[in-house]
Amino acid sequence: MLPAFHAMVARWSAPNYRSLVVVVIFVGIDLGVAVGMVLTGVLCDYGFAGGWPSAFYVFGVLGCVYSVAWFLLCHNSPSDHPRISTVERKYWETVIGATELDAHPPTPWREIFTSAPVWALAVAFFADNWGYFTLATCLPLFMHDVLGFDMTRNGAFSALPFVAPIAAQPLSGLFADWLRSPGKLSTNAVRKIMCVVGFTLTGSSTILVGYVGCNRALAVISMCIVVTCLCLEFSCVGVNQLDLAPLHAGKIMGLTFAVATLASIAGPLAVGVLTSSRSTRSEWQNVFYLNAGIYAVGAVVFVVFGSGHRQDWADDTSQVELTCAVNRNKENPSNY
Questions:
Q1: What's residue 323's pLDDT?
Q2: pLDDT in tens, 254-268
Q3: For residue 189, which phi and psi values (nearest 5 degrees)?
């Protein structure tokens, strides 16, 4: 779904507000994690089909229901939407440009695969996913083994850190777009600042979690701070695909998120290795130090090799205009 919605955002959002649009969409992930953790904890204790299996049935049905809404409501671009008003269609043509709204230029695969900014973004996305999915999948383990929460309370308290970004993430996107407004900073500078500041704050607060002791309230608050700080770098790693090449943003998201997904596999595995003995607080400190180190690598790589500029290979303007002209002539034969 991520490549699909990035391809749509390129044609359904104003360039000046893309940070806000993307992070608002991603708020759904945090909301889903929060609701999922609470509901799963309850279903494990009180659900049907023996408890924990009911969580799979419930979320499976919800996914099927959602897919129906996606097929009925989503369309490629304003020009393809069957129910859009003429006023709104004209608005998008003005904001995005009639040419890019309908353009489908050939994909410059060679340039994408040899682009340093694309791979720098992939590394930064890997670092972001490492920390996020380590928390999303292993936080209940930390809550149970170190803080001693039972399953129902575990689900509720594990969900709390993912509630904070529901408000913080849109604010970070709004702040990033404000910094990009005319007369302030360039998009390149904003992306690198958000990346460095976000990773630095997240890494530092992650390390601190390992030293809060067994104070449950303080541990949960610290986790909330960690996940909130993650919102800052997401205004870089989740949006930069649209900066590099808007018409190919879906493909770049597919590539960068494929690399990032490796982190969602490796992160929890690393937790299993580092906490395999007793899952004590000292072992979890090693987990948090590893997270911080990966954040540091992601920040350095993006600052050195990343970019917020539209790339030279982003589109072949002549080819885009030719394609649009042919499409218009097919609709109006009198133009030939």
A1: 44
A2: 999 999 999 989 988
A3: -65, -40
What per-residue confidence (pLDDT) applies to 324? Answer: 44
Residue 277's SS3 state is coil
Which domains, and CATH codes, for the chain? 2-88+117-335 (1.20.1250.20)
End-to-end CA distance of the chain: 39
* 151 Cβ contact partners less than 8 Å away, ≥ 6 residues apart: 41, 44, 45, 144
Task: Print burial letters for 55-93: b (CB count within 10 Å at least 16), e (below 16).
Answer: beebbeeeeeeeeeeeeeeeeebbeebeeeeeeebeebb
pLDDT for 336 equals 36
Q: For residue 245, what pLDDT is reported?
A: 92
SS3 state of residue 75:
coil
Task: Quote the CA–CA distance of 35 and 81 in Å, as a whole number.
Answer: 32
Nearest to 37 by CA among 139, 167, 165, 190: 139
CA pair distance 308, 244, nearest whole angstrom: 6
- Report angle CA 119, 121, 123 to the nearest 5 degrees: 70
How far is CA 252 from each of CA 3, 113, 129, 214, rounded to the nearest angstrom?
8, 9, 16, 43
Burial of residue 187, with CB atoms counted within 10 A of its CB: 0-12 exposed, 13-18 middle, 19 or more buried: buried
Q: Would you call 109 helix, strand, or coil by DSSP?
A: helix
Band (318; pLDDT cuts 50, 70, 90): very low
Taking Cα atoms as reference points, which of 220, 223, 237, 235 lies closest to residue 169?
Answer: 235
